[in-house]
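Let us begin with a simple case.
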Amino acid sequence: MANLVITSFTLWLSLVILYATQTMHAMAFWPGGSSTRFYDFKVQTKKITKLCYTKDIITINEMYPGPVVYAQEDDRVIIRVTNESPYNATIHWHGVRQRLSCWSDGPSYITQCPIQTGQTFTYEFTLFQQKGTLLWHAHVSWLRATVHGAIVVYPKTGVPYPFMYPYEEHIIILGEYWLRDLVQLEQAVLASGGGPPTADAFTINGHPGPNYNCSSDDVYKIDVVPGKTYLLRLINAGLNTENFFAIANHKLTIVEADAEYTKPFSTDRVMLGPGQTVNVLVTANQPIGRYSMGMGPYMSAQNVPFQSIKSVAYFQYLGAMPYSLALPAPLPSFNDNLAVKTVMDGLKSLNPVPVPKEIDSNLFITIGLNVQKCNSKTPQQNCQGVNGGIMAASMNNISFIKPSVSLLEAYYKHIHGYYSEDFPGVPLKFYDFVNGAPNTIPIDTQSVRGTRTKVLEFGSRVQLILQDTGTVTTENHPIHLHGYSFYVVGYGTGNYNPQTANFNLVDPPYMNTIGVPAGGWAAIRFVADNPGVWFMHCHLEIHLSWGLSVVFIVKNGQGELETLPHPPADLPRC
């Protein structure tokens, strides 16, 4: 895995002084860290050979996966990003709640314009009351496939883990690898009107494993001592597929999800959607040997192609023969919804948590796919969706269109004409969302396109019902909310019914990305106490490209600690 990037003290000091002089007007508003960690990220092209082919990929500091950001709870983190690649770039710090630092959140055209080639932007945020495993990744086009890495936030000095201290810790990043250029691929898919091709390989820490061509030696391995317990920090940085993970003959004990401690829960496998993180304890308690760590697809949608070849890494005991046959990791079938539900059922916060009991803003948002009518003069080239239509996705049947400027900047500077504040808090029409959804494609499957936002009052207690729909197909959607974590108080199959829904208001998991069940619903709650412009979207990249997203604007409260600070001086311009 990547090592910590170390810069000279002179460079660090000069940058800190420069940054302080540029942003003194904002410093008083931001929570102060107990110490400061500085990183220098360069977006660079790197030539690599995988799957029998050599190609250029976009990386950070020529590392794939990228460098690990290490910190402790309440630390301030300063990361200077210089774009030396031919493409626009931004970095999103996934799961960092960005308390009063919305300008550093990173999604392109939402909180900032992209960092153009040759430009530099410095991200700054405080890991206020946060610890655990998170990730960072590019938030422009589909660059996330190779531009990603781990964020590891340790507890404060002297504060122990609430579980057995592991003998070692290892970061495991699940990914997808394409032989094609990712920016060009997204453009080609959107121009076609159809769906994306499957990934050429799944990867574990950038390695496809022996099941793929030219990859018998391109395998990740952990050497383990018999009898010892290991902490694995699992991260899904993939683009368009959710994934199962398991280790042959070994139990996984979940102790953290989305950087929040959970009650220990033992399972044979876990499922992570893109953007999700899970920490598991694994004890090397089996006979000395070589055991497979397996990564395979979870595909809940109907008639959608996917990569079916599993990625394999090795959990290898000291004393095992180096090239001994590895015991296979049994993974669920690709569409095993029950396996996903079983793990979700086991996730509970470690202790009772302060779930909002009274609700000020009760929202109901449908999520799903659409097919637009074809109006192209070259339908064979541009209308390759279902029944000759154009694929789209939406929330409350509105496909989000990214503006040509930063929404946060437009909001802060009162620049009109780039967005509206009329996103509906409920669907425009209620029907049997799961079993009676319109499916006369493309006659009644179209969505409305627009840059619509939903405004929330500062301090409002929000309940959000996320309802999957059956238009085109039902599907498990990993929905990520920027700037917040939320309590997952309930979920189920079918249409949400407030009369029969079971809610956990005592110890629900506190997450930042929730897999809304295929043909089902999830209920989340949070307090809107962080002013700014916050993106909520499906973390399947193709769905984001098709418009399955919305923006929440959280208004300022009272006083400096409830007010969005001024933008930084080096904020990129569009």
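The second case is a distinct protein. As before, the sequence precedes its structure tokens.
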Amino acid sequence: MVMFKIIRVETTPFEGQKPGTSGLRKKVKVFIQPHYLQNFVQATFNALGADRVKGATLVVSGDGRYYSKDAIQIITKMAAANGVRRVWIGQNGLLSTPAVSAVVRERVGADGSKATGAFILTASHNPGGPHEDFGIKYNMENGGPAPEGITNKIYENTTTLKDYLIAEGLPDVDISTTGVSSFEGPEGKFDVDVFDSTSDYLKLLKSIFDFPSIQKLLSSPNFSFCYDALHGVAGVHAKRIFVAELGANESSLVNCVPKEDFGGGHPDPNLTYAKELVARMGLSTTHSEPNPPEFGAAADGDGDRNMILGKRFFVTPSDSVAIIAANAVQAIPYFSGGLKGVARSMPTSAALDVVAKHLNLKFFEVPTGWKFFGNLMDAGMCSICGEESFGTGSDHIREKDGIWAVLAWLSILAYKNKDNLGGGNLVTVEDIVRQHWATYGRHYYTRYDYENVDVGAAKELMAHLVKLQSSLDEVNKIIKGIHSDSDVSSVVHADEFEYKDPVDGSVSKHQGIRYLFEDGSRLVFRLSGTGSEGATIRLYIEQYEKDSSKIGRDSQEALAPLVEVALKLSKMQEYTGRSAPTVIT
């Protein structure tokens, strides 16, 4: 048996190793600096404390982006040196973020061991490659992201770190082949278990959904299906779940071979970046598709986000979570006993609120960040949740789950079409959405992203918006100056969103600037923490329409007056120099 020894390597702190809502994300060139990754990993072990590290079982895997394979070997050697008992690695280092959460919560090792946490190597929907982004985050024993108490401690540790521990004489592990490798160190045995990436995740999904009914839908001659993994890790799971288990045709999978640089694309499942799927589904402005599939979906780099499309029809993420919640009890066996509650992030449209009220469900509005949902779920208060940034999920794990959302939609389609798969007209994605609007009203909704804005300019814009809130009379005067007609109602409330967690009592401040209008419309401005450089300003525009004769309008046309108000009120172009957003969703 290979023996290794533990060495202590002297180091000095790096500036800016503060993990955001989704861990630490930087350019690859930053991460490959000597000691940079090692410092962050040691700071994490120190923050967790000896009781959570010594003898622990840790998952180390990710979305397969550039630098992942090197990082896995470094973290494995550091885990051994810090007294971890075993490391579990998905084959080829590949596990989607939801699959990691499932493995932490569900997998039992051959020796009866259970995972106590995970290092996930991902920068989510950000591009990959030698000149692009890398990221790392730590998830806890519940399978969810580390809470602020831990991430703040990690950051504090990075500012004072003087050394880190690493195993010397521990060879690189072959992560391409499944099996257990055993080693011996000063503190005893250390095992590395390379396991199949999809089995545990698939087992969990099969316990949630009625796979035979989805299989029946996918095999119907009336139904066609397309799934685009954007060369992210979800491609590994998609082949096994959609083709091997559910019988979909392999040709229905697009870009399902994971690549370190995501094929040179931007693995963000929206109408701007999922170009190939958008064209296939008949939604391209430049390419005409004569016969699009009935259903299409896309994933991001680490497989936790999703975009849902019907034939020539886009489903907003805000509508998607509301529709899943409205149909879950009938269509998904896991929820047949009823929903404990539902939740959305603050910037997400209020479509879910209306469903919750209608169905008499507990409802929560939380800051952006999946950990807030996790607290509610751990307390048994929430079953289904979602956010407008293409994230949807449930209490089966503690991360958002892109493939879960796709299976939820396929379940709803299978349920609505159970009597007409042999022939006759299918109930389509568009039918389901329009029926939902007819029942609950429609929330016209759009998001403008201004990416890589100068950080100083972004902060000035936000400060300007906060200052404006001190006088609603002044705000309404400005609005009437922009739109003197009745297209835009008056602002009745404006604040910076603050959240008191009903579970642990913690308070999260400065979570976004809100302008709430008399007719239920909203403008929300947020600085996002998920980019690797510069600032991203996100502007959310929402208008609620109950009148069934007005729910069929084009979204951008319906929202045009509010968009104009938002841009002029915020002085967007004046502060940022941008005449148009980078992305509109």
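The first strand starts at residue 2 and ends at 3. Residues 47 and 150 are 6 Å apart (CA to CA).
Keep these points in mind for the review questions at the end of the chapter.
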